[in-house]
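Retro notes, item 3 of 5
We never archived the inputs for the iron/sulfur cluster complex last cycle. Fixing that now. Sequence and ligand:
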Amino acid sequence: MHTIVVPDAQQKMQLLGRLAGLECDGQPTPSAGRTQVKRDFLAGAVVQVQRPDGPMTVLRTLQTSACERNCYYCPFRAGRTSTVRVSFSPDELAREFDRMQRAGVVQGLFLSSGSVGGGHNAMDPMLATVELIRRRYEYGGYIHLKIMPGAERAQVEQALCLADRVSINLEGANAQRLAFLAPRKDFEGELLPAMHWVREIAGAHSPLAKRPSMTTQFVVGPAGESDRELLTTVNRLYQEVGLSRAYYSRFNPVPDTPLADAAPEPALREHRLYQADWLLRFYGFALDDLPFDHDGRLPAEVDPKLAWAHRHLAGQPVELNRASRRELLRVPGIGPRSAEAILRARRQGRLRDLADLRVLGAVASRAAPFVLLDGCRPPRQLGFWD
Ligand code: SF4
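Structure as it came back at the time:
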């Protein structure tokens, strides 16, 4: 006779936290609990995220690991027998989060879920959990809530009232790429419309007290998409729906899934995508400025800003004593802060040599081949030129 063991809330937390760590790409994220004991016990459930005011320790968990969908990259896909299926009731999860938050183990929550009974049915317990955390436990801190594919507009609205950040994961660069990765997800019919709802609800005339941010995530690699395809979609989303940021999650195969034998994607590709994304968001680059090759790939061997500078600035260096902010931001080694510092310093006097640039926070050795100082190339000074 078998003994059926029903896990208690802490055992579920341990299990679902570890599974949530696999959700993106099969790679658990390092845990960051306050104490070694808690970190070991909650491996995967307690993670550190970067917030504008510094790092924050967050409980990352799932409402349930049960799922009826069959996304090819995902450890929770329906029919994967090795995945343990466990669910939290809203009461249970809200209480457990409150306990951990009051004990100082976590400072925030990231709640995701598998999907059973359609996206709207999957959203209900997630919303109920967060509602309890806000109302019963009077928690006013950071909550990141995933919007499930197929959620209804009213649920998106409720999520925006409760959360600081929502995520709608597109996974594929477009409908065709998503169909390869997750044939039961609908790019045009359910994911993009939900993003537009967020834009409309959280828009300029929103009754919401605060504007939650929206993020998305892509599984990079197995669908064969190019960097241009990914960045075209992301660039459009930054402009059209106010996306705050995109996460590029390089593919790592998960055993016992249809993509188990596909090759993992190199970490360098993920890194280059993030660099190009920063150029779009913070450096004034347009999509067509990015140095894609004929196949729409970013160069692997050099970062995209340096590749652009080699093509465009090597023969036409930027005059540091006259350049606009936009022109300064095109120079390798000069970022938004150092560009501002250069503009401020120029009001006091002229920049004379590369040492001035370094004092102002720029990486002078990177900038040197692409700049002029009062019409002259900077002299090759030791330590400033590569
Ligand atoms: S909907 Fe797809 S990605 Fe989400 S948990 Fe289910 S199988 Fe995984």
